[in-house]
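Lecture 7, part B: from sequences to assemblies.

Below are the input chains for today's worked example.
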Amino acid sequence: MKKWAPYLFISPFFILFAVFSLFPLLFSIYLSFNQWEAASGVEAMQWVGLDNYKYALSDPWFLRSLGNTVWLALASGVPQHLVAIPLAAFIHNSFKRSRNLVIGIYFLPFITSSVAIAMVFNTLFSRDYGQINVLLQWCASLPLIGGLFPAESIDWLGSSLFIKPAVAFVIFWRYLGWNLVLYLSALQVIPKDLYEAATIDGASKRQQFWYITLPQLRPMIYLAVTLTIMGNLQLFEEPFVLVAESSGVSQSVMTTAIFVYKTAFSSGDFGTASAISWLLFLIIASTTWVNNRIFSRNERNERKEAK
Amino acid sequence: MKSSILGAAPLAALTLAFGVAAAPATPTVLPQAAPLPALAPATITVASFPDLDRAVKTALPLWEKLYPQVKVKLVSLQIDDHHNSMTTALAAGARLPDVMAIDFRYVGSFAESKGMEDLLQLPYGAGQYRALFVPFTFVQATSARGTLGAMPADLGPGTLFYRKDLMDKAGIQETDLTQSWESYIAAGKKLKAATGTYLLAGASDLADIYIRANLKDGEGIYFGDKGQVLVDSPRFVKAFELAKAARVAGIDARTVAWTGEWAEGFKRDKVASQMMGSWLSGHLAKWLAPDSKGQWRAANLPAGALASYGGSFYGIPKKAANKTQAWEFIKFMTVNKDIQLHSLKEIGAFPALKAAYADPMMDEPQPYFGGQKTRLLARDTAAKIPVIRVDKFDAVARDIVNMELESVLAQNKDIKTALADAKALITHRARR
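Predicted structure of the full complex, as structure tokens:
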């Protein structure tokens, strides 16, 4: 009994891992080589080899969904970091007691329910009744600068031209707080001596940010960017809840994850959906690898320079 | 076997018993001495979605009086979540309900699935009720193999709802709206000029209803009888042309059905008409436009078009635990006239059971529609709707057609090219 006791005690993790992670993973690989109409039960599976992969790669909607995903990932991901880093430095230096409150306010969108977000932004983006258009029209009526703003209401979620930026903005708004928290935690462990020494040497605040803060933040930038790449390439919730699936323009923000969902549940083609999921996995893995190479090369170069 | 006592006799007795109820919309009268089937005690799970779940909820007190030993557990999810959850439950063959509500958009794929009981087979023998229903509803739930995946509960005869007060202001008669599709668009221009109101919520609604209208018996919306893709046929060309004409004329509010913006259009008197299934009357009165009570009217679709728009069904999964009780419950919800009328009153679900059409309730004036007898209109339309074949790829085809229509409306894509692209993509997606 004593021999088995340790295995018994650690078994809950392995059982849960096997049931909820390992089995779905292996089943999904197996499924990607089968054609399966799920509603007909497991016995309806048919082995088709690589057909699902060939079929997915020849589907124009798959390629379009990849394009949409990359567009949204870049348009919402890049500004997240460009804003979060200086903002984190600003909050770190400027707020003392009220810092946690400010962080909390920025972090709030991250923990808000996506349904609530959809309702709020649908109302704000509404063409005829939305506050964004009301504000733009008020700006357009101002003297001198009025000409810079559109006089006509913009159909944010109904036109293929504006729907992508509108959705990207919501993603940016939602995940900015998350990155802010990551960068703030990294800022707190930068030794104060570095800044003190720099101040004595006469370095300006801007120089301190550029030559101390940014290099010290590099490990966290690497982590945050990796998380953004992985998260943004799997984008689902925001475009899904913001845009009515039945609308024609919904294709403009149909990400690969949404396409997987549609292929499985709308077309009832679970095999192809699994194949697309694995193609997406390969894309995410290779992008993360490239990101890793870029960061580690920079680090190597720096180490060489230091020597 | 308990199933041997199931069938027409007890059902007829049940119907007779309900017949004595004075107010069919709130059936509370117990059957007198009807020989009800001796169902074994059980708790059956009914999986449904809003608003259809209300039809079950309000009929439950009577069910419990008839069969106190059979408890009903109603589980309800939002419509798409419900169907997704049912698909995964069928895939896994676990956690399946005893009775599964199915919306018409999904009935094709569920009927084709081998996970549902064939209700034509014994002990169900649903074939004996076929003549009691509006013909196209039974066909919608029949698979290519000839099996019946579900029983029809309600249907949606295509109806044109319009605001009488706004039309009066612009000097538009009902015949201007219904005479032809062209006169409908012309009326929209007149309305926009006189009142600034849009005639349509979205130009795509026009195409959507046109492609369902005037099908021949046995024809499918997107697929022909040999599975061929029909989306480049003249029906689709005309549907796209009409939608484009409405967009160019500026008479559509460019909103998508069931979005907040769409609902606001009705609430704020910005949209003066909507073509949809007759069940929209319930939504208009309850939450879309309760303030404009008395101002709405219902009419036939333009150019005498006949279309089926929506409907609900009940089926039994093969791996359900209590099939006998489930079948009795499905009959209770579908073959019973009074329960069907009850659903009509409660949620505006138009009965699929023809026996309900002779009831005086059909003749009741509707205060929301200024006293108009809208149920008679829906009844007459329902009787004439052709039998439309459904296909498991209908939902896929609809998505693709919607996307191409959007390219035509917003990006000026050529209609013929758009439809050719749609055909190629649907063929690819349906692997045909």
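Note for the exam: The CA atoms of residues 234 and 240 of chain B lie 10 Å apart. Keep this in mind when comparing with the next example.
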